[in-house]
Amino acid sequence: MRIVVCAKQIPDPATPYKLEADTHWLVRPAEQVLDDTDRYGVEMGLQLAQNSDGGVTIVSMGPAGSMQGLRQALAMGAEKAVIIDDPTLRGSDALATARVLAAAIAREGFDLVIAGTESTDGYSGVVPQMVAEILDVPALTYATEVKAAEGKITIHRQTSTGYEVVEGSLPALVTVTAGVVEPRYPTFKGIMEAKKKPVDNLALADLSVEATTDQKVTSISDAPARSGGAKIEDDGAAHEKIIELLAQKKVI
Amino acid sequence: MAEVWVFVREFDGAPTPLALELLTKARQVGDTTAVYVGTGSEEAFARLGEYGAKNVFHLDPKDSLVAAPVARAMAERLETDKPDLILFGQAYDDRDVAGRLAARIGRPILSNATNVTLEGSTSHEIFGGTQIAEAEITSAGPKLVLIRPKSFAAEPTGGAAPQVTVLDLPDVGGAGAKVTGTHVEERQGPKLEDASVIVSGGRGLGSAENYELIEKLGKLLRAATGATRAIVDAGWVPYAKQVGQTGKTVKPDVYIACGISGAMQHLVGMKDSKVIIAINKDADAPIFGIADLGVVGDVHKVLPKLIEALEKR
Fold first, then answer.
1. pLDDT at B197 over 80
2. Which pTM value belongs to this model?
3. Which residue among B181, B229, B275 sits closest to A249, beta carbon to beta carbon?
4. Do A133 and B313 touch (CB under 8 A)?
5. Cα dist. A63→A92, A201, A207 in Å?
6. Rounded to a whole number, what is the distance in Å from the CA of A113 to chain B's nearest CA?
7. What is the pLDDT of residue B90?
8. What is the per-residue burial (b if ≥16 Cβ within 10 Å, else e) of A11-41?
9. Which of B88, B110, B120, B181 is positioned for an S-S bond with B143, CB 3.0–4.6 A?
10. Given an 8 Å threshold on Cβ–Cβ distance, is B309 in contact with A94?
């Protein structure tokens, strides 16, 4: 089974995010990390590939930078990475991103595309579904369990109250939640091998696709601040203060 | 008058609360058509009318996964109809349909909006709700907007029963999928979205077993119990309990955050609670920035005492 995993390099979520003053685009340092939500997709891909005699290719769009994030996916065991890094794609919206990813995925060839449910820096939450429509395949979304064999794919699709069992045929796209598998940590051997694995660095012109963005942020302002109230150190009796407030609010 | 379509997903035979919020907003912006996805009934359609829908497109996907057939049926209808705005909720089926529809008709989407105007410009809370971004779509055509739950209060307007048109679902071939089973998690106490009191736990609880403290306190306060993404991802509690950007948005009278530091992902889902009480051992935790009462202390010490005191009352 040929598996493509969509992955994204994002600014380290542990650092405060900043926007460029004129464009309102997110400032992206050269050192970006693999979006944590993508580790689950990579792991899922590796497990499915192992069971079906195939390999995992990572497809990503954005500034390549130091490639630290995608190298992590390669170190986990993916065979190859394709990154579309083109200055004209800066500030791309979800649809432009999906068009580029879909073109790159079609160029590689695939039986299954795996993506996270949304990125941690953008959260638009619609890119995988767009990619699926462009590729004319089903999108089995929000998976907490994935089984794929003999041209079929079955998932548990998370819902707000539990899950649904959903079946489709390959080729297909699946989006995975954090609960789907336990991602492996790269081994030292994996990290060394990752340095030699092939990376295709593409420009937009390498893909026959139009990717214009028809939306923009017009202004940024501070939200009305909600100020904190009393802050007390627990001296062994803090629970009494909580009870006082609960009584005052008529909860008890 | 502008024309607005509102995507309405059926749940338990009725429009979702989120859809009623969107209808309430839509009718202030223009003439409203509900795109109703589900089995449908006189009662359900009447409810759409009560919340301001003048027309209903009814699509029944039966056991098909909704996204591909519904998106393509909507795209076909958009060859003749020209709504100015198409509103969806920031919810799973909504995202799936909106994404496919946008790609099908080549239109951009504005996601995670908390407000929308007639012109289709939108507001978005970013960086955990500390800043507001205003955005707009710059090309002509229907504007697709995904709106976060609880951005507007749902209010009936007493409208008459709407005109219902059945839209046939096209055969989508291999792009379709089937729903072959449904599993509902057991839940005790009130629903998170409706609860007036919520007790939530995070990493600071230390282990899955300690979530029991949250359940005990929740039961005593007749509260719903919630969780951060971190402990859902860690497998301590099911996703149905997740509050935040990718979970549920809640606005209870009282929110008690236990062992929650206040990641942006979490704050965005609960910062509009009327009263916030936080217990966390790190005095610098961001949660204290929005808490009405912040207790700098160990949840393993404070919670048992709180529970014991409440049991005695």
1. yes
2. 0.94
3. B275
4. no
5. 12, 10, 17
6. 13
7. 96
8. beeeeebebeeeebeeebeeebbbbebbbbb
9. B120
10. no
Q: A8 near A39, Cβ under 8 Å? A: no
Contact B198, B219 (CB under 8 A): no
Share of chain B above pLDDT 90, in %: 94
Q: Which of A59, A98, A51, A102 is nearest to A80 (CA)?
A: A59
Task: Convert the pLDDT of each residue in B207-235 to its tens digit.
Answer: 999 999 999 999 999 999 999 999 999 99
Answer whether residue B239 shows pLDDT above 80.
Answer: yes
Find the mean pLDDT for residues A173-178.
Answer: 96
At B301 the pLDDT is: 97
Per-residue model confidence as pLDDT tens digits over A49-63:
998 888 999 999 999
d(CA B58, CA B10): 11
Q: Is the pLDDT of residue B1 over 80?
A: no
Whether A251 sits inside 8 A of B129 (CB atoms) is no
Average pLDDT over residues A85-110: 97
Strand B275-280, strand B254-258: pairing: parallel
- Interface with chain B: mutation pick from A214, A248, A252, highest number of B CBs within 10 Å: A214
| Tens digits of residue pLDDT in A12-45 | 988 889 999 999 999 999 999 999 999 999 999 9
Which is the CATH superfamily of the domain at B2-175? HUPs (3.40.50.620)
Please check whether residue A175 is in contact with residue B99, taking contact to mean a CB–CB distance below 8 angstroms.
no
Domain A3-206 belongs in CATH node 2.60.200.40: no
Q: Among B18, B65, B271, B312, which would you mutate to test the A interface (most chain A Cβ atoms within 10 Å of its Cβ)? A: B65
Kindly report the CATH number that applies to the domain delimited by B197-312.
3.40.50.1220
pLDDT at B79 over 80: yes
Q: Where in chain B is the domain with CATH 3.40.50.1220?
A: 197-312
Contact B302 A239 (CB under 8 A): yes
